[in-house]
Design goal:
α1 packs across α2, α1 packs across α4 and α2 packs across α3. Helix content is 36%, strand content 22%. It has a five-stranded mixed beta sheet with strand order 4-3-5-16-6. Strands 7, 13, 14 and 15 form a four-stranded antiparallel beta sheet that branches. The protein is an alpha+beta fold. The model has no long low-confidence stretch (mean pLDDT 88).
Length: 301
């Protein structure tokens, strides 16, 4: 039953196989066995598509409720164990994975050896419920309104950086508008939109639609280009702290640094809190200089 629901949700046998940790042939075999047992065709399959039949759609809708109840019951039972166990599936931004998850992973694994953290790095905003994730991590202003969100960091500082070789060639910008005449590394967000740089705060905040020789859709690419002297880059101050300390990059327009929403973890309010999630949140918050959550903090944050 769970195999069938996963196939319908993912609309792909291969993707369902990856999520369940089995082979595609095993998935196909179990589906055929289920259809033979029930005596009803559940899916219409072609080389290009996989669509549930009317009977299959009705069955999947009912099974989703039942399987979720079972999952909630098992998660609730896990709370009575001395240590969390099971698999925690997270979908996180690349910057969040590097800056706030990476530093606490050794401690998390050591303290909770029975937990398996299944981490998907994705800068696209995905439907975590439809994709089978227990929780997601995004910037606070990108968390869906029907989710419970918990801040994992303090507000984030966004800065403009450049390699010394670049500032020697083009000089230092005195105002944000000066960047319009200089080579910049353009940004493309997870939804494929070009993102204007936001500089300053409050009433002084300005958006600069920069132009440059390349457009990057993730931080590593933009920082590598900046280190090579290709252009000015816009990124989290936390992400380039080491490069600035080593003199490989320098922050320009420091007075125009912009404060943005914190990294935030979110999950569906109708579900039981997955085993190990509370502990993961506490470790990250402590590492980021925030207080631990109360036991009931996840249900009311």
């Amino acid at each position: 039953m769970n195999v069938f629901v996963t196939i319908v949700r993912r609309q792909s046998m291969s993707q369902a196989a990856i999520e369940l940790g089995v082979s595609t042939s095993a998935i196909s075999h179990r589906l055929r066995k289920l259809e033979a047992t029930l005596g009803v065709r559940l899916l219409n399959r072609t080389s290009r598509s996989l669509i549930p039949t009317q009977a299959g759609s009705a069955l999947a809708a009912h099974l989703e409720i039942g399987l979720q109840s079972i999952d909630d019951a098992l998660n609730a039972l896990a709370l009575h164990r001395d240590t969390p166990n099971g698999r925690l599936r997270l979908n996180a931004l690349r910057d969040a994975a590097k800056l706030i998850i990476g530093p606490i992973l050794p401690s998390y694994i050591q303290q909770f050896p029975d937990m398996q953290l299944d981490l998907a790095i994705d800068d696209h905003l995905v439907d975590i419920v439809a994709q089978g994730f227990d929780a997601g991590i995004r910037y606070g202003d990108r968390v869906p309104q029907d989710m419970i969100g918990v801040a994992l960091s303090k507000p984030l500082q966004w800065v403009v950086v450049a390699a010394p070789m670049l500032t020697k060639r083009f000089g230092l910008p005195g105002t944000p508008q000066d960047l319009l005449k200089m080579p910049c590394i353009e940004m493309r967000t997870g939804d494929n939109r070009r993102y204007p740089w936001e500089l300053g705060n409050g009433a002084d905040l300005v958006q600069i639609d920069v132009r440059g020789p390349i457009c990057a859709n993730e931080t590593e690419q933009a920082i590598d280009a900046a280190l090579s002297g290709i252009g000015f880059a816009y990124c989290l101050e936390h992400r380039v702290r080491q490069e600035v300390k080593q003199g490989k990059l320098e922050i320009v327009l420091a007075d125009w640094a912009s404060e943005g929403p914190p990294f935030t973890i979110y999950y569906p309010s109708r579900r039981q809190v997955p085993s190990g999630l509370h502990e993961l949140i506490d470790l990250i918050r402590e590492d980021q200089g925030l207080t631990r959550l109360a036991t009931s903090g996840l249900s009311s944050a």
